[in-house]
Write a structure and sequence with these properties.
single chain, alpha+beta, 2 domains, 3 helices
């Protein structure tokens, strides 16, 4: 599903315009990003939990040459689905 298809689905389900649905989706994305940067965790009961984890620096291998390369440490975003979401997908 593309972002445009998601906006159309939200607009149809909520009986609002596509412009309003697009603005709501942008606000949601912005708020999630801000909260993850600020606190590192965001939980939505029934949907799931977003969290920020730190990945340590490590040594990798270039698949073309086989040479060892250094991979820098970085933060990664994880999502753990809630029970209600998991049950709906089954």
């Amino acid at each position: 599903m593309t972002k445009a298809e998601l906006v159309a689905a939200i607009a149809g389900d909520a009986d609002i315009s596509k412009a309003a649905a697009a603005k709501a989706l942008e606000c949601y994305i912005k708020t999630v990003a801000t909260e993850l940067k600020k606190n590192g965790k965001l939980g939505l009961v029934g949907f799931g939990t977003f969290s920020v984890n730190k990945r340590k620096a490590r040594t990798g291998r270039n698949p073309q040459t086989g040479d060892k390369i250094k991979i820098k440490a970085k933060k990664v975003i994880k999502f753990k689905p809630g029970k209600a979401l998991t049950d709906k997908v089954k």
